[in-house]
Amino acid sequence: MRAASTFFWRRPYWYLALLLVPPLLWFGTVYLGSLFALLAQSFYRIDDFTAQVVREPTLATYQQLVTQPANVDIVLRTVTMAIAVTIACAVIAMPIATYMARYARGRMKALFYVGVMLPMWTSYLVKVYAWRQLLAKEGIIAWVVGKLGLTGLLDALLATPGIGGPSLSTSYIGMFLVFVYMWLPFMILPMAAALERVPSSLLQASADLGARPAQTFRNVVMPLAVPGIAAGSVFTFSLTLGDYIIPSVVGAPGYFIGMMVYVQQGTAGNIPLAAAFSVVPIVLIFVYLSVAKRFGAFDAL
Amino acid sequence: MTAAIEFRGVSRTYGEVRAVDDVSFAVEPGEFFAMLGPSGSGKTTCLRLVAGFDTPNRGQVLLDGADVSSVPPYDRNVNTVFQDYALFPHMTVLGNVAYGPRVRGVAAPEREQRAREMLELVQLAAQGERRPAQLSGGQRQRVALARALINQPKVLLLDEPLGALDLKLREEMQIELKGLQKKLGITFVYVTHDQGEALSMADRVAVFNKGRIEQLAAPRELYLRPATPFVARFVGGANVADVALAQKLGEATPFAIRAENVDVQVESTAIPAGSLAAPGAVVAVQFHGAASRWQVRLDAGDTWSALIPETRRMNGLAVGGRVRLVWTREAAVPLTSS
Question: Which of A272, A300, B15, B16 gets the highest tally of CB atoms within 10 A of its CB?
């Protein structure tokens, strides 16, 4: 035992190799390997007559993706929803994360962190189906709205073209609510972590130099919270882009990217198109991150 | 003349802890005022009360004669150099310095011009485009200073500003800060736990202990005539005889005697007239270069120290040996027995 310890102490590279090789093998093959295998599929195409995958490199599948209006609609619909969900999560998370990071102490802080994570400990499916009940035409939300005498308002909202529908549970508004509910913790936690790292002396220095609280928020807190918001928004954005359960349980009948992947690789048996669809979120996240970097989102890191 | 800063019976408590306990004092305009004390003595809380980061539970804080107890920091004509410098990491050095004018609505060309002038004042004109993270500790300290001075405050607050610097740099910055204060004529309030720093820079020093001011005096006065045992020990590093010890040594009232005024002699020598003596045993001898500090455990109880110049030969005296500490009555400083 002692001899082995000395051996590795003298040869730190062997020690690092011992530490890293097994997990890197696992990560490289299981995560990245399968991802690239999937991506490779998107450069094949399906033969329309035989319904067999033709294993020759081609851009035909991508051409199909970007030229068929139905497919473009699906991408636009999903991206719009993902942007709306991300913005809503950021707006709701900001005050909560600020309170958790800057004001809460001791038990209150623990309570908030547990409170934010607690919903993630229950089954995802249970929550989605529970939301369908809540949002249903005779569900508790409609009932409460009725008791408050605001049914007219809800009906007007549901009559809005594009986002409305017969009831909350069959409209994009309902789907949006469920998405925001699901992914909010993924925004709050990185945001709170970023804000925790801002020393309070920076805020005092800002006030000391004459900045009113709103100016301090804009000039100091926001720029330093941006890496956290960026991290959180990658979660909310990509989770929304890839999800197929929420759009199939709650909301209007239009397809989302995740559902398309599910359908194409399953019943339709079009693995190349499914792979091409799953490339879309990856590309979008890359674009998003490079734009964020261009605007200096990570300068404070 | 209206005082630049005045505390009137100010208290600040956190639950049971009395951080500042019924403190009153005034700082004159243009004065270099030091607040000296160990950590937790209330000096930093007093600074925060002046800056507006904290509000008193009782009493009033006045700036230029006006009660500011409920005025927020951004409406006070006071600026702070923070202990950790608190530079904004996402802004350039120039952006940091120009921040004060920026939030006060000064147009970009003018505030950049002023920021460049401030950077020149602290000899960092060439570093304007860098980020704080790319600077050394001493440079960051100068940026913090330039940023705090750009708003032309009536009072500059400095919270242990040199604490993170190494000794040589610290001594250079002490001279520079003092020169800057003379040049600008701004009131400086300087918080430190380093008595050497306070004594060498300040016009007057307030010595804090347990939320109260023990003594407020000029450095020389503080060193030569400490009023309380705490001040005698903390500022002068003096030996203190409380009432009981003073009586054993033949004096009616408590007194302090600084180590450089105490001599170490063999027990057999005669005690000169007008001198006092206390027998004891040598516990340790620490070499300090020009002098050595002899720690002697008195038979009467306490351990005292004597500073003996290296030029003196101490034949036959060593650790463990019996000695007698001797000092003149004039060198002893009477203390109030608090």
Answer: A272
